[in-house]
Design brief:
Oligomer: homohexamer
Strand order of the largest sheet of chain A: 2-1-4-5
CATH architecture of the largest domain in chain A: 3-Layer(aba) Sandwich
Order of helices and strands of chain A: EHEEHEHEHEHEHHEHEHEH
Radius of gyration of chain A: 17 Å
Number of strands of chain A: 10
Helix content of chain A: 40-55%
Shape of chain A: globular
CATH topology of the largest domain in chain A: Rossmann fold
C-alpha cells in the first residue's frame, strides 16, 4: 500500500518531519512517500495561505494518480483542498484535522484542540461544525506559536505547547487533546508523556485511518457529489489542468 | 463607491452578464468593475473547480487593493475564497450565496435553492451550515443544467429553471427562491414573473449588501481572525504573493 | 424611497435620536420618517414591555400602508412584532437586532452583543436562535444600564458601554461588536473609535438593509406563511383592526 | 388550586369549549376559571392575530394576580404572550403548545403536529426550536381548516382532522400526534379512538402540568430573566398598565 | 393510581428516602410503592453502574406489570433503562433527569444542574442532548460528593451542595437549579431555602408528571418504536425473560 | 494484537459469521477472538434486548481484561454498553454503528443506513445524534427483516436488503450506504457489487479502526469521565462484579 502524505506548505524540513512521523507509524506493508508542492506558502497560518496551498495539494494528488498511489493524507490542520482532492480519485483522502477529530472522539467523550496561532482557531471551528464534532470539542486553544517556530525554535515551542496542554487537561473537562498542526507530528510522544492523557496527532492518525480504509476496500465514493469533476477547459497558468483532470 | 465584481471563472461572456446585472442594480454613485481571473476553469461545477478558481479570486482582490476598490463581490454560488479574500482587505467582501441567503431570510421564513447541477448541492449545504441558514432552507434543488448552458443554451436552460422553481413553490412550503448560480443573474426578473414569488439572486443581492456596508462605514474586521495574513514567503509560481500580501 | 422607522417605545427623545441616526445614514433619495406609537411603554426592558409595544408597532405599519411607505424598520433590539408586521405589507420590514446580526456576520466570523440590562439577554438569545446566528455570537453582555439612562444620563452610560465593549474585545475572541439597543444609535461612532474594532448598530444597519431590499425590488413574500392575515373581526378596543387589516 | 385558563381569542363559544375540557380533566381540588380578553381577534391564525391577542392575555394574567389565581394556561397553540406572562407572576404559566410538546415527548420518541391552517406551521416550528423539540417533531401538518370552523362546522372539520391524523400515523414514523389548536380540546377522545395512537391535546396537557407544578411548590422563577418587569410608565390607551404592573 | 418508584441501586436507605419524598408529594389518591432491584450496584456513579442497574430496573417494571402498576418512575439521574422500560408497558415511565429537565424549563429560561461526581456530567450532557434541553442548561456542575455520602455523611454533603448551588445561582445566569441525584430528594426544600431560587428535584417532579400523564389517560405509545419487544428466547441467567416479556 | 469481537446476542451462528468477517479483514498480525455472552437475548431488536445484552457485553470485556486483550469490538448496531465498556479498560472499545458512521463519513459527504426492523431506527437516530453524524445521514431505512432471518432465511433477506439499498442509492442523494446490523457482515461484498456504491459494514470497519488505534498507541482515556468506575459493592446475582471491576 502506497500512502502519499502531502505537506501543503513548501518547507522541506516540515515535509521531512511529517514523512518520518508517518513512516514510524505505518504498518510493515505500507510505503509512505512524503511530498510538498512546487509552489506555495512556506507555512499555513491563515485562510489565504490555505487557499493558495490547496492548488499544490491538488496537483500532488493528480501526480499521485498517475503514479498509482493508494491513499492520500493532507498534512495541514485546516485540511486544505480536502473535498476537491476527494473528487480527483477513487482512493481515500484524509485531512489530518479530520483524522484527529475522529480518533479523539473514539477514546474520549470530549477533547480540546491545542493549535499554533489563535487566528486559525476559526478554521478548526468551521471544520468541527462541518464534520459533526462541534459538541465533542470543549475548547480550541492556541499556544501562539508561529508554525515555523516548531522547526526553528523547537524547545521554546515545545515548552509553550506543553504548558497549554496542561491547562487544557486541568480546566476543560476533557479526556484527550488534539494537536492542531502537522508540524507537531514529532512532538506527540513527548507531550503525551508530560501531560498524562491521550494526545492525538493528525498525521499519524490519518496514516492509520487510510490504512484502515484501504484494508476495507473502501475509497472515495464516485456516486454522487464526490464523483470526478466534469471535464472542462482551464485557462492560463492552469491550462495544464484541462489535461490532468481524471476523466473516467 | 467602486465595487469590484469578480467572476471566479474565466468565461468572458459570463463576466459580462454578471457585470451588466450588477450595473443595472447599482446605486447612481456606485461604479461597478467586473473582472475575471487570468487563469482558471471556464465554469465552476465542483469542489475542484472552486479550489482552483480561488487563486484567481484572491489575485483579483489583491489587484483591487492596489486600485483602491471599495468593496468586492465574489460572483460564484460556492463563495470560493471568501474567508481568504476577507483577510486581504479592510473593504467588505461578499459571496453571492451568502448574500442571497441573507436577503431571502429577510423576506421569507423559509426558502429553497434552485441550482445548476445536483453535485454542487453539497457546497450549498456546507455554506448554509457555516453561515447559520440550515433551518431556513427547506430544500436544495437542481435543474441539472451545466453552468455554461446558461450562456450557450439559454432558452432551454431557462425553461428547465422555471419548471424547477415552480415545483419548489408548490411543494416546499417556502416564501422565496434563491437562484444558485451567478450565471442566472440576468434571468431573475423573468423567473420571478413566471413563478410568482420573490426570487433572490446573489450577484444583485451582493451588490446592494456591499453598498449598504460601505454606506455604514463597515468593512471586514481586522481585529481577530480576519486580520491581514502574516507576511511570509511564497515559493515557485506563487512567489509573487510574497510581495503582494498586504502588510499594514 | 420612504422608510418608516418605528420606535416601539413612546419616549419622543428616543424617537428623535433614532430618526436622526437613520437620516444621517440614509441614501440621498431616501426619506426617513421616524414615528412612535400613541400608546405603550416609555422604554422596553422585558418581554412584557415588548408584547405591549408590538400593538403600537403594528398600528404604525398599518398607518404606513395607508401612506404608501416603502419599507419599515422596527427600532427596538428585541424586534417586537416583526413577524406580524411582515404579514401586513408587501414592503420589507426589518428588526434592528436582525439587521445588526446580519451585518456583523458579514464582516467578522464571530461577534458579541453589548446590551443594556442582563435580563434582556434571553430575548437576544432567542432571536439569535431563530435567525440562525447562535454560533456566530460568542457572548451576550450587559452594561446594566436602564434604557432611559441612555437619554438622561448619557455620559455615565457611554462610559459603562465603552468599558463593556473593551472587555468584549479583549476576552471574547471576536471581530465585531453588536450594540444591543436602539437608543445607542447616536453612540456608535464614539464607541467604535474608543474600542477599535467594528461596531454594528441596528438602526443604521436596518436602514441600509431596507434600502438594499427596496433597490432589489424585494419585499416581504406574500406566498406562504407571511401572506396577509385572513380578514376577521376584532372586538372591543381592537375593533378598528377589523377595518385596518389589509385585504388584497 | 385555582387555574385560570385564558382563551386568547374573543369567541365565547371557544372559551366555553376550552373551559369544559379543562374542567373535565382537572383534579378534584382544582378550580378552573376560563376567561377571554375584552378585546382582540375572534380567532388566531397569524402572527398578527397572535400579537394583538397577547395584550388581552397579559391583562387577564394581571387580573388573575389581583384575584389570587394559582396558575395560568394560555389556550392558543402559538403560546401568545407566554414569556411576558411569566414575568408578571410567581405562579406557573403554561402555553398549550409547550404543554403538548412536553407530554408527547414523554410517551413517544417522535411525534407529528396536526394543526388548522398551513400558514401557522411556522409558528409551531419556531416554538419547537425555542423549546428544544425540533428533533422530536417529525412533521407539522395542516388540515387546512379555519379555526372557527371547529366551532361552526364541526363534523366536516372533525373528519378532515381525522383524515390528516391517519396520514400522520401511517407516513411519519411517529408514536403520537399533537393537536395544534385549542379549539380541538373537545375532539381529542374521538380522534384518538379513530386513529388508534396517543393523541396529545394542549389544553388538557397544560392543566395537568400546572397542577403538577403547583403540587411541587414550583412557580415561575423570579431570579434572573423572568423577574417582574421593572416598574415604568405606559402611555395612552395602555396607561393603566403603569398601575397594573406587579411591583413586589 | 399506583406509581412504582424504582430506585435503580440496591441501597435500602436510599430507596426509603426516595419513597418518602415521593409519598410526601403524591396526590391523595396516589399510592406510591418504592422498590429496588434484588441485585446490582449499591450506588450509580458511572456508565458501568448504570448499565448493570438497568437489568434490575427492567425486572422491576416487569414485576410491576404483573401487579397492575399504573406508572413508573426510574429514580436515578441517568435514567437507566428508560427507553427499554417504556417498551415493556402501556403505562407512562419517567426518568428523574428527564422529569427535572422538563419542569425546570417550564419555570425558567435557563437552568444549571448540580450533581454528585464530575464524571457523571457526561451522562447528563448526553441526556440533555437526546431530550432537547442542551440549550436550556447553562452548566453541569458537580459538588464532588460520592452518592452514598448523601446517606452516610449528610451534613457535609448538604453543605457542599448548597455551596455549589449558590455558585450556580451567582455565576451561571440561570433561573432554576436541577439537583442531579435521586439521593437528594429529601434535601430539596432546605437547599431551595438556602439558595433562594427554584430548585427542581427529579423524584418529586417525576411523580407529579406521571400523575399528570395518567390523569390525561396518556401512556407510552405502542404505535411505532416503543411497541412491546418482539417475543424471543433469552438464554442462561436471563432465560426467565423469555417468559416475562409482555406479549400483547 | 488481540481483538475481541463481542457478539452481544447469544446466537452462536451469528458469532461465527461475525468472527469470520472480522478474521477475513484483519491484518496479518491481528488475532481475532469472537465471543458471545453466556446469557442474553438470541437477537437484539429493541431497547429492551439491548439493555439486557449490555450485561453480557461488559462481562466479556472484564473477561478480556483478565486475558490481556488489546481491543474490543461490540458487534451489534446499537452499540450496547459502549460507554460502560470503555470505563472498564485502557484498551480501545468500538461499537459497530459508530465505526461504520466514521468510515462512511470519510468517503462520502452523506450516507443512508439500511437496517433490519423499522423500530430500531430510533436507536440509530440517537447514536447519530450523540456521535455527531446527524447531518451526514440522509435517511434511516429498514428492510423489515427480523435479525435472525439473516441467518435462517438468507436469500430472501439478502434480496430485500439489496432492494432497499438500491432505493437508498436512487432516492437519497448519498455517496455511501451503512449496513445496520452485525449479522450482515458477510453480505457486504455482494450488496456492494449489486448496488454499485460503497457499502460500509460495521464489524469490518470496527476491526480496522481498532487496529488503527492500537497502532497509534491510543486507548480509552482514563483521564476524566471514562476513568475506571469507582470500586463498589454489587449485590445478589451481580455480586461477582464487586470483584471484577478493574481497580488500577
Amino acid at each position: 500500500m502506497h500512502i502519499r502524505v502531502i505537506n501543503p506548505n513548501t518547507t522541506a524540513g516540515m515535509t521531512a518531519t511529517i514523512g518520518e512521523a508517518a513512516r514510524r507509524i505505518a504498518a510493515p506493508g505500507t510505503h509512505i512517500s512524503a511530498t510538498q508542492p512546487d509552489a506555495g506558502p512556506v507555512s499555513i497560518e491563515s485562510h489565504f495561505d490555505e487557499a493558495i496551498s490547496a492548488v499544490g495539494v491538488l496537483e500532488e494528488v493528480l501526480a499521485g494518480e498517475r503514479e498509482g498511489v493508494d491513499a492520500y493524507v493532507i498534512a495541514c490542520f485546516g485540511d486544505p483542498g480536502l473535498m476537491a482532492a476527494r473528487e480527483l480519485t477513487r482512493a481515500p483522502v484524509l485531512g489530518i484535522a479530520e483524522a484527529a477529530f475522529h480518533m479523539a472522539s473514539l477514546i474520549s467523550t470530549r477533547f480540546s484542540i491545542v493549535t499554533t496561532l489563535g487566528r486559525t482557531g476559526i478554521i478548526a471551528e468551521h471544520l468541527l461544525e462541518q464534520y459533526g464534532f462541534r459538541h465533542h470539542c470543549r475548547r480550541v486553544r492556541a499556544a501562539e506559536i508561529p508554525v515555523l517556530d516548531l522547526e526553528e525554535n523547537g524547545d521554546a515551542a515545545l515548552s509553550r505547547l506543553i504548558g497549554e496542554c496542561r491547562r487544557a487537561r486541568d480546566e476543560d473537562g476533557i479526556g484527550a487533546i488534539v494537536l492542531g498542526c502537522g508540524g507537531m507530528a514529532d512532538l506527540t510522544d513527548e507531550i503525551a508523556r508530560e501531560v498524562g492523557l491521550p494526545v492525538v496527532e493528525g498525521v499519524t492518525a490519518a496514516v492509520k485511518l487510510t490504512e484502515a480504509l484501504v484494508g476495507l476496500g473502501l475509497g472515495t465514493s464516485k456516486h454522487g457529489d464526490l464523483a470526478f469533476p466534469r471535464p472542462k477547459a482551464f485557462t492560463g497558468r492552469f491550462a495544464h489542468l484541462s489535461e490532468l483532470t481524471p476523466r473516467r
